[in-house]
Amino acid sequence: MSSPATVTLPIAEAEALAIGALEACGASAPNARATAHALVAAEADGQAGHGLSRVPSYAAQTLAGKVDGKAVPKLTQTGAASLRVNAGRGFAYPAIDAAIEALPPLAHNAGVAAAGIYASHHAGQAGLHAERLADQGLIALIVSNTPAAMAFAGGRRATLGTNPLAFAAPIAGRAPLVIDLALSQVARSKVVAAQKAGKPIPIGWAVDADGTPTTDPAAALKGTLEPIGGPKGAALALMVEVLCGALAGGRYGWEASSFLDATGDSPQVGQVLVAFDPASFAGAGFPARMADIVAAITADGARLPGDRRLAARARAHEHGLSISAALHQEILSIHA
Amino acid sequence: MSSPATVTLPIAEAEALAIGALEACGASAPNARATAHALVAAEADGQAGHGLSRVPSYAAQTLAGKVDGKAVPKLTQTGAASLRVNAGRGFAYPAIDAAIEALPPLAHNAGVAAAGIYASHHAGQAGLHAERLADQGLIALIVSNTPAAMAFAGGRRATLGTNPLAFAAPIAGRAPLVIDLALSQVARSKVVAAQKAGKPIPIGWAVDADGTPTTDPAAALKGTLEPIGGPKGAALALMVEVLCGALAGGRYGWEASSFLDATGDSPQVGQVLVAFDPASFAGAGFPARMADIVAAITADGARLPGDRRLAARARAHEHGLSISAALHQEILSIHA
User: Does residue B290 sit at the A interface (CB-CB below 8 Å)?
Assistant: First the structure.
């Protein structure tokens, strides 16, 4: 009997697998747990790009000291509604967890509250973090910057990150509405996949180093990804750089090292989380207004953003996570 | 001698012209002043679509009682960092002015503060409002929803507004960085202009009533405008609907009447303004980090968003505003 191409693991076992690899490379137990939990949750939601595929590179970065696996996030309340969080050149998740724990009481008290995280790393599936704030009755807006991939409007060089933006709002009686998107037309990983498959990419995904639209994935990877809506998406990505770099104090996309390899200094990007308490704005009318949105979307035959993710999550919790046998072996080999 | 095609007015005279028309239709002096000031500022910035061209329709809406020209915005502080503003079915500008006056002390004190405006109207050039908060040292994010123009992701009907988003951040020694964009690929006015000129529109601007991409402006106006980045832009527009409708308590895009004609009830859309105090986040490093952004943008031969607007503003303050003689006559005739 040939060995299976995939391995299926229950959620808890997948987390233990990732924790083992990260701890073997020097991550503290709480950091390994927080990081593994976020990666497995992304994998369960069908976001494999933010899932277990990251474990080998996260482990290598910890081993190399590019990421401080023992970092302890330092959280400072700087105002009635503001938090400053130093992620300490560690993984993003422990810092994000600390912010998500501290924000709700501030937001409930002040009406709105925000946390700025710096000296941070890859935020993973940002929608998951927003969803956790929505689970506590808050409307959440989260942005993170990422290493250089897109050009300024009118520019040529890779400077701006693809800069994910996530948003979540609670809906009575069902999972929150969750929006989660990067500001590039497509993820860089899609261009890499096309290159590996020897296939051209559609015009509109990327431009080459001269700024000319290209169908050649190799030329695209030497150029820049196209933002959504051209200059509009570039402007939105710049907004995220201002929030994560200038406001929160992270490094800009054009200053940050890769999230993927183990070379150089920590990327030290930033994240900003904003939480609004509906009770302080529209107040008692809020649940009915969210129900109106659900009704309008379903009446038009459309689907709430994030609902595909919920279906994947339910399947994963029932049947476990399927990952490639090669990835499973690679992660297991880190334990040794 | 034939009459000139355009009339050039000094800024103060243009404001007086608009004030006169709005007051003649029953607007209170402060509401006429706030509204005229915002329209003239947009005109001066080269944003004619949010400028004096709006005076006749604003005046007609006031006369018809669709907009309450005598509305007094009611501002309630609901938390240490939150404001609820009832625009009273009047114009948006008096409510936005009230929020911009009240937000800075809250943001300086709490680190971040937000205002939700409801029962409101067309926010005009949102970047101007964000810029005023940045002039007070704050980072500002402003969203407004607008009447139905785009479809939900996967939907067919015009539901979502084009939902402008504005962002501004202060830069030491020069005007703030200002981002101001709608979430549609193009403004509906561009499709209307193509129809009037008898010209086709490019694929990508709009789809017809069946959801098929079209080059026919008439078919496009019966269909929906395309959001930036397809489903991503639709998701961002939905985020703005949640903020302005569910959080602030405005009407959704699919519930709002037109900003342009005098029929029906007030549109009663919403606006949300968020102001961050950099001192509560990255702190003393903030000005240098903004300077780093300016340096990175100029090093790449690109231009800061909003700089074209500043050049137009300087020209308008030096040479006055040029509007069509027909529009000038139309506004003057409202005075009579």
Answer: yes
